[in-house]
Design a protein that fits this description.
globular; 34% helix; Arc Repressor Mutant, subunit A; 7% strand
């Protein structure tokens, strides 16, 4: 019995909107892209919701739990995901957050873009022009 399809792939895929890489990648960085991909991997195809724990994401992405939390909150801050706290029920502990992968606009809203996310073209290591040249 073969485990692989004829093209050599396992047959399991996830889809990520191009805008996540093309536009949001600069904003959320490589850890944000990785976390978004992990959430997309767990998300239900129809509802676009998932509920992996911080520990699961931490192990999968090889990040500390605290770093995962920061990255997930950044994804929510820029509007790529929504986070819902699960309800507590009859003395039970609250479970994992519920994440919704929001529809991705073609470009991020300007409010999510800051000057700090783009590298400076001229840095302090560049020498100023020599105004004393003949």
């Amino acid at each position: 019995m073969q485990d692989r399809k004829p093209n050599g792939h396992s047959g399991y895929w996830l889809k990520i909107d191009h805008a996540v890489l093309d536009y949001y990648g600069r904003i959320i960085g490589p850890y944000g892209v990785a976390a978004y991909a992990a959430l997309a991997r767990f998300a239900d195809f129809n509802t676009r919701t998932c509920y992996p724990s911080y520990e699961t994401l931490s192990e999968m992405l090889q990040m500390s739990r605290r770093h995962v939390i920061r990255v997930i909150h950044r994804l929510a801050e820029v509007g790529l995901i929504s986070i819902k706290k699960p309800p507590r029920g009859r003395g039970l502990r609250r479970g994992s957050n519920i994440y919704l992968l929001n529809p991705v606009p073609d470009q991020p809203p300007l409010s999510t873009i800051s000057v700090d996310m783009f590298p400076r073209l001229v840095t302090d290591s560049h020498q100023p022009s020599d105004s004393q040249s003949p």
